[in-house]
Amino acid sequence: MYKSLRLTIFLFVIGFFSCKKDKPVEPIPTNTTANYTLFNTSNTPLQSNSINRIFKDATNNIWVASNKGFYKYNGSAWQIYDSSAFAFPSNVFNTIKQDNNGNMWIGSNNGLLKYDGTSFTTYNMSNSGLPSNKIRSILIAPNNDVWIGTFSGGGLAKFNGTIWTTYTPFNSGLPNNSVASIAVAADGTIWLGTATGVSHFDGGTNWVNYTIANSGLPNNSIYSIVIDSMNVKWIGTNAGLCKFDGSTWTTYNSSNSGLPLNLVRPIVCFQSYKKWIGTEGAGVSLFDNSSWTNINSSNSNIPDNNIKTIAIDASGKKWIGTANAGIVVIP
């Protein structure tokens, strides 16, 4: 009897521990069309399925920058902004952000637009201190300074509403004139992703540049850089996802992790420890610092595996912009 009782207790304990589950990963709806919403040129006023940037503003409107105009979606209706209705210098828009006063800043292939909700102001090389008309990235700093990353030789610009300041390899420690991504840390310093590595700028005169030669970066072509709530930098490269906590560099790639492809493009931090990662050819991944969940056109309703932008709205929905097939929204 006692042997039987001991055996029962042993089996109960084994069963208890075997039922313990790891930290739950956010559920990903796959192999279903019911949980996805698709927006493209067939079912919306979008004039291009090539989506360059998606941005959620302070009132949860979704703004979309595309190769043919930019758009505002309020949850039920789309507003079109393009060169046929407005005197825009270009119809190709690469990025969009909102400042602390509610103004929208939109970067195009031929200048920078400021939209106050009523009228547009255009900034270009002819009428301002903008060093290049080709705008790649925008950051709004906590003090409302507008930082602008350019390509085609322009470098980095800062606009405080009155004065323009330009940073290039010739007058500063900026390592390269192509600035793909800009992030601000909790201490107010600026982190830049460039074509030749990562640059850290204190806003004054001090620059620290990181490359494959002096750091744990796996590649010098930087497409994205974001900073999470723990001040950890997450960097998208052509050789995987790189994490820098201030002292240690960690690389996640398709060989040593669940990352499906090394061509990492957009990164979004979500709920403190989760990262949504877009790739150029293998869809999107959710990484919770231990587990990976990959979704793509083979196991879900995502229409294109070339991911260019990701935004998360107030309800937690993921807005994913693709290179060729419009937008997919995942709850």
Tell me roughly what share of residues is in helical segments.
under 10%
Overall mean confidence score, pLDDT: 91
Number of helices: 1
The Rg value, from CA coordinates, equals: 22 Å
Brief summary of the model shown:
With 331 residues, the chain is mostly beta strands.
Descriptive tags:
331 residues; mainly beta; 4-stranded antiparallel beta sheet; 1 helix; disordered N terminus
Describe this structure in words.
- A hairpin with a 5-residue loop joins β11 and β12.
- 5% of the residues lie in helices and 41% in strands.
- The longest helix is centred in the first third of the chain and has 17 residues, at 2-18.
- The radius of gyration is 22 Å and the shape is globular.
- It contains one helix and 28 strands.
- It has one helix at residues 2-18, and strands spanning 37-39, 51-56, 62-66, 70-73, 78-81, 93-98, 104-108, 111-115, 120-123, 135-140, 146-150, 156-159, 164-167, 179-184, 190-194, 197-201, 207-210, 222-227, 233-237, 240-244, 249-252, 264-270, 274-279, 284-287, 292-295, 307-312, 318-322, 327-330.
- By secondary structure, it is mainly beta.
- The relative contact order is 0.12.
- The strands form seven sheets. It has a four-stranded antiparallel β-sheet, with no helix packed on it. A four-stranded antiparallel β-sheet has the order 2-3-4-5, with no helix packed on it.
